[in-house]
Design brief:
about 100 residues; mainly alpha
């Protein structure tokens, strides 16, 4: 079952990074407005993380999309790099400052 969640996470990220086509129908625009925003994407990925996908797998997929030649056509879309950065920002480990109390 964990493999299914890994594949689901990959589909969700690729779909979000691809974005909406220029000649999208009204139904596609409505569906994108409802389910294609960053909050919905992060919620779905968060659910996949609860079911066994690791945060490292999410970050590895984002790096693969950024660097692999099989995703070169995806990176050529308008705004795809910005959307990729937006997803990456949500799943990067936060740098918390540790304070020493004396």
């Amino acid at each position: 079952m964990r493999e299914w969640h890994v594949k689901h996470m990959e589909k969700i990220v690729v779909k979000f990074v691809t974005g909406l086509s220029a000649n999208a129908s009204m139904w596609e625009k409505r569906q994108n407005k409802r389910y294609g925003r960053i909050t919905s994407v992060c919620r779905q990925i968060g659910y996949d993380i609860k079911q066994g996908v690791t945060n490292e797998q999410v970050l590895m997929l984002l790096q693969k999309i950024r660097n692999d030649s099989s995703f070169s056509s995806l990176r050529n879309n308008d705004g795809s790099i910005e959307r990729l950065n937006e997803v990456e920002k949500h799943f990067l480990p936060s740098k918390q400052k540790s304070y020493e109390w004396y």
